[in-house]
Queue: 2 jobs
Job 1
Amino acid sequence: MKRCSTCNRTYTDPNLSFCIDDGTPLTTVETEDETTVVRPNAREDDDWNAMAYRPPPPYVPPGTIDKPRRRVWPWVVGIAGAFILGIAAIGIVAAILVPRMMRARQNERPRVTVRQPDNSNTTENRNTNTAPSNTNSNSTEHANTPPPSDHDQVLAQLKDLETEWTIANLNADKKKLDRILADDYAGQESEEGGLQTKSEYIETIERDTQVEKWEFSDLNLLLTGDRATLSGIITYFVRDRSVSFDFKDRFVWRDGRWQATGAELKRRGNVGTDL
């Protein structure tokens, strides 16, 4: 005899292995009382019909059923899109903030005001003097500007030009000398005489590091239209020594400025200790 462990129904048919009601596997039990045994009615006219045997579905342990896999590519696309948007946002912010920060730093830098040295010829030179402001600059005068006729004005202009010329000589500033000297310049080569052209003057000029300062004295101006001659004395100082020269420089008003066309130089008697 067999019994269903779910509904406790017993069966005597040895061929049955599963309960016909719930499909639970039957277990064999010993028969103790025939009155408790349920037998199917064998009569042909009985209305009871046994249900057809249906094997139970296969047992599947929990957790072994395959779950539908989630798609991964939407997550990859989303993360990549967020990364690209983040980089773009950082680039936009940097493009806006970096120029502002640079401008702010520039505004924070202290402005350095360069103090120009005194252009007086009696101040110490040491060959580092900045050329004085030249009234002959083309930035303030035009090539067709007529020559000035005021004696004091021309004297001041030529004195500034003489200072600029002296500084250019001491520093061997060929570019500055090319502007000061006229193309037809012909000046004294040495105290012994001889003439020197503009190109020869510029080619042979050498830097002088000994002169500390200089000064002009006894200046005299002869002005005739666009021609001017400035004469006087120039004294050079080197430590405890000094030497003086009589000079006579000739100028012409050309291209809206004064240009040197000639120069004469002659050593004077001892002043202090000669060079």
Note: The two ends are 149 Å apart (CA to CA).
Job 2
Amino acid sequence: MDAMVSSLPLAASSERAEASLIAVRDLSFTVASPAVQLNILKGVSFSVAVGEAVAVVGPSGSGKSTLMMLLGGLDRASGGSIRVAGQELTALDEDALARFRRDHIGIVFQSFHLVPTMTAEENVALPLEFAGVGDALPRAREALARVGLAHRTRHYPAQLSGGEQQRTALARAIVARPAIILADEPTGNLDGATGAAVMDLLFGLRVELGTTLLLITHDERLAARCGRIISLADGRIESDRVVG
């Protein structure tokens, strides 16, 4: 699909930051060892508005997954600022970060990250149980029904296909109705047809729930569905463009 591409003016970028759900400023991430210091992210800055769908693309090693881990509070930045839903993540301790993720963020990984000894409904209920929600299992079954797995609630991950496992992971990501979904190569372990079906489901749920989406992908066609593409190269933003 051909796309019209427009650059974001500096003034518009500043206005976006003030009213944004996510505001990243001069973000850096460094891994140090006695032998070498590896700068994975170098001064990354961008903002995301409520309800936006943004794809993050770039070659392997460009810093995409590291950026997603930092936005999800799963790793600590070496420098800069990450403000999400009014909270400065760099100022939160580990317990506060865990609560923040529970309340605001759903994460979908390439490798599903399901607990093998738990059924589908138990896996989906986990975020709610951590939050002390009393009706976690009924809400988990409702989320599984949303992704077409009402008939698989009592099955264990090993009894599910790859596509069913990823749909279970997606149900877990949306069960608490988070403001933000972070999806890191969610179709990476799926065949083409199954991956396309999962992404149709993800984009449909995003619209239905009004959720903000950040999607890491190597697929340019998939990235174009987001409407905005941030390209990373060597730990820096190479371009930030709107497509449509």
Note: The mean pLDDT is 89.
